[in-house]
């Protein structure tokens, strides 16, 4: 396993150690969250945990959870005890950018209902300001997407429709993603408000003030950031 993979797994294990029997747990998406889902399955199979319900933030995470023996239910209005997920950027105040894995809408819908949102990452995700390394993913409707992209470019110049091949990337919700390049200076809450007010925008990858703790694995050990 490569060094970063080892670190991701270390962070994931720290988060899954917080899970107790009977909990309803939000299951994140991505290469770090994958380790958490696998560890949850391992703990269930080993009899360390019982009566866990997982609520998956993507079809991929749901499939993995079922594969490793974590029971999955759809999101309903009941709170989740805990949600565990990765992030693309983590700033010093625990504000996040998420969605490079394309699951930002289901992640936000799920994690807003969690009593505790636990973020797991390796140290490359730490930034001094959001947008330093990663673009901000913005989920937009397919209908009229070219017009929405123009509106977004007027608001945040720079960025592009996510298109890994001949066709645009399609989310689990049937939408497209616009990856916005953030300027060097901006006010995240205000930009979030403006983006959410833009016709055609479904959700943004800003997760502001949502995370309770981050386990960030470094070569020197796992840092706990609150
Ligand atoms: C998916 C996400 C992921 O949590 C984020 O992209 C981090 O993924 P990884 O752990 O693979 O780096 O927000 O929508």
Can you give keywords for this protein?
single chain; 226 residues; alpha/beta; four-stranded antiparallel sheet; 6 helices; 29% helix; binds ribulose-5-phosphate
Molecular structure report:
This protein has a six-stranded mixed beta sheet with strand order 2-1-3-6-12-13, with helices on both faces. A four-stranded antiparallel beta sheet has the order 8-9-7-10, covered by helices on one side. The radius of gyration is 17 Å and the shape is globular. With 226 residues, it is α/β, with parallel strands linked by helices. It contains six helices and 13 strands. The structure holds ribulose-5-phosphate (5RP). Ribulose-5-phosphate (5RP) binds at residues 28-33, 85-88, 98-104, 107. The active site is at residue 107.
Instruction: Report the bound ligands by name, code or SMILES.
Output: ribulose-5-phosphate
User: Which spans of ≥5 residues are poorly predicted at pLDDT below 50?
Assistant: none
Q: How helix-rich are the residues, as a percent range?
A: 25-40%
Task: Tell me the fraction of residues in β-strands, as a range.
Answer: 15-25%
Overall pLDDT level:
97
Which strand order do you get reading across the main beta sheet? 2-1-3-6-12-13
β-strand number: 13
> Can you tell me the overall shape?
globular
> Structural class, from secondary structure content?
alpha/beta
- The Rg value, from CA coordinates, equals 17 Å
CA distance, first residue to last residue: 29 Å
Reported for the largest beta sheet, the result is:
6 strands, mixed
H/E series: HEHEHEEEHEEHEEHEEEE
How many H/I helices? 6
EC number: 5.3.1.6
Protein name: Ribose-5-phosphate isomerase A
InterPro entries: NagB/RpiA_transferase-like, Ribose-5P_isomerase, Ribose5P_isomerase_typA_subgr, Ribose5P_isomerase_type_A
Active site: 107
């Amino acid at each position: 396993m490569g060094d970063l993979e080892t670190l991701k797994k270390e962070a994931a294990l720290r988060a899954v150690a917080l899970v107790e029997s009977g909990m309803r747990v939000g299951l994140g998406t991505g290469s770090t969250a994958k380790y958490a889902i696998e560890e949850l399955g391992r703990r269930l199979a080993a009899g360390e945990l019982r009566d866990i319900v997982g609520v998956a933030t993507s079809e991929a995470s749901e499939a993995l959870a079922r594969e490793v023996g974590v029971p999955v239910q759809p999101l309903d209005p009941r709170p989740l005890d805990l949600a565990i997920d990765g992030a693309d950027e983590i700033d010093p105040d625990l504000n996040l950018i998420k969605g490079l894995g394309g699951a930002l809408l289901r992640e936000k819908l799920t994690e807003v209902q969690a009593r505790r949102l636990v973020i797991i990452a390796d140290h490359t995700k730490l930034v001094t300001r959001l947008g330093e390394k990663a673009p901000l993913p913005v989920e937009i409707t397919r209908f009229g997407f070219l017009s929405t992209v123009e509106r977004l470019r007027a608001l945040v110049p720079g960025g592009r429709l996510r298109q890994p091949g001949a066709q645009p990337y399609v989310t689990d919700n049937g939408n497209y993603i616009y990856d916005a390049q953030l300027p060097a200076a901006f006010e995240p809450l205000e930009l979030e408000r403006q983006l959410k007010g833009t016709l055609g925008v479904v959700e943004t990858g800003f997760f502001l003030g949502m995370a309770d703790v981050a386990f960030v694995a470094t070569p020197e050990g796992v840092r706990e950031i609150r």
